[in-house]
Amino acid sequence: MLLTIALIIFLLPFALSGSSSAQPDTPINAFYLILVMGALSIWIGFRGITLNKLKRIKYPFLLFLVSLVLAAATAGNGPGSFLELYKYITGLVLFAWAATLSEKEKRCLANTILGSSFVIGLLAIYQYFFGFQILAEYLTAKNISDPFVIEKLAERRVFSPFQTPALLGGYLAMTIPLVWSTRKKTLLLPPLFVALLLTRSLGALASLGVVAAVISLFYIRSNIKKTVFFVSMTIALAGVLLIRSNGAREHLLPWFSLFSRIDFWKESWEIICNRPWMGSGLGNFSLPSSRYAHNSFLQLWAEGGVITLVSFLWLTGAVLIKNHGQREKRFSSGLAAGVCVFLVHNLIDFSFFVPAVSLTWWILMGLLYFPGQEASKNEG
Description:
Elements: H1 2-15, H2 27-47, H3 58-73, H4 79-99, H5 103-142, H6 147-155, H7 165-175, H8 185-199, H9 202-219, H10 223-245, H11 254-274, H12 296-304, H13 306-323, H14 329-345, H15 355-368, H16 373-379
């Protein structure tokens, strides 16, 4: 059964990649979410979930869940709010399921996610060298002159299989740290990092750089290796920034993106100030020129209220601080880095609200959580 669920998780970013700011939900997304929950239900039916293993995080977990249910019930948005709630519940069930797996099963699942990311990286590289040209020839043959598509072709920022380069960049940056605990670093890391660079996502690259820099201070003892790492990341960021700054269209420049985000944050704060405690309800967030705040913490507060935000931070902090040191350091540190990269990126992005990326993050959270010795003794 684990292999079946692992296959579903391997295909998850491909099946759910139809999510975007313009088209957040599609029939295949809904079907695949049902498939995920169905597979987990069968697993739980046969093997169950040892809830005793979750007792160290039960309060933030339950508080977050209850706050989401209340936010959906009071949203006044009908099915839309409960569809959003279903996405959260799917993530929480994936988290609880992954958290209760054995260490061997967790490593298997982490390798599955890394394998999926590797295939996505190769697909992105293929898109850059061949895919854009094939698409351009197809558009010419069919006499299609859609300005948006032509603009994306000219920009040449890879995004496949996702809808935007930022989503692909966020996914790759989140999964790259998993390479640390494998023996095939020289095989896996180059294509993943090249694909990340080809997205030209400054936010994703900077998020990975910040988290990797912090971890390197604790785990890299050689000053030479530290220097090489910092210089390499600086060159990569500077190169991407330089390339994107030379664009001909103003709305594609990084400065335009930054100032737009600042405007989004101001507008989001105004929404929060109107209903800081209860929020506007799940699925009700909307700005004049964007469906997302481009800061997932602000949007979570705006939709769910302060209790939802606090309980989410509590749950995340409990997993990161209390539990990741329970096992082999390379494995847990790679998972912790992936979780943190996602969180840092969501200070300026919205992938938390896109299941194709966020569900993988919930799984990483569950893989990171190891019950303490006390829970293991009680279980025995």
